[in-house]
Write a structure and sequence with these properties.
- Helix content is about 60%, strand content about 5%.
- The chain is mainly α and about 190 residues long.
- A three-stranded antiparallel β-sheet has the order 1-3-2.
- Strand 2 and strand 3 form a beta hairpin.
- The longest helix is centred in the C-terminal third of the chain and has 34 residues.
């Protein structure tokens, strides 16, 4: 995949044979797989995009959302839905839903171009925010576990104390990791 801009003029110059080539069409099956080929994605790019889809599916998001995130991570510029539709071979409505899901997770940001109503999306580079938001949820989970310790007895009490300690350590280590990463980033 390249980061060249596809213009309407370039589309008009495309021959019918090029439009029906395997590289321009979605792969058989689910219709969501990126298609490797000279006019599409390299095999490595297609594999990365697909793997991101599988990974995010394990997090409870649709594969299409993960694939879109993988695609956007490989882009150097913001991309509009028409370009995503053309390059990923997915329905515009599905990509719009996927983009909004990614935006709600703060994994992408939207922008508009002056004089245009089109919305562009790009992957964010500051994912430490996502870690800190997740940490806030983990901190609340830890507090809830801790609140159960005084009312539990025996093994249940030990289990709650152990879990609260584990998640408390997780929160502390994640905050330290983000702080260290931000300090190293600021120093470079």
């Amino acid at each position: 995949m390249t980061d060249h801009e596809i213009t309407p003029e370039a589309d008009a110059d495309a021959s019918p044979a090029a439009e029906s080539s395997p590289a321009a069409a979605p792969s058989p099956g689910d219709g969501l797989s990126p298609v490797p080929g000279a006019d599409g994605f390299s095999d490595a790019e297609a594999a990365f995009i697909s793997e991101m889809g599988s990974l995010m599916e394990r997090w409870g998001l649709p594969q299409a959302t993960g694939r879109l995130f993988g695609y956007l991570l490989l882009r150097n510029k913001p991309v509009d839905l028409d370009t995503m539709t053309r390059e990923l071979g997915q329905a515009k409505s599905g990509l719009s839903v996927a983009a909004r899901q990614l935006e709600s997770w703060t994994l992408v940001r939207r922008s508009t171009r002056p004089g245009s109503r089109r919305i562009d999306y790009e992957a964010v580079g500051d994912l430490q925010h996502l870690l800190l938001v997740n940490n806030a949820h983990m901190r609340k989970f830890t507090e809830t576990l801790s609140s159960g310790i005084p009312v539990a007895r025996g093994e249940a009490r030990d289990r709650l104390a152990s879990l609260a300690d584990l998640f408390s350590g997780f929160v502390e280590q994640t905050e330290a990791l983000v702080a260290d990463w931000e300090a190293r980033r600021a120093a470079s």
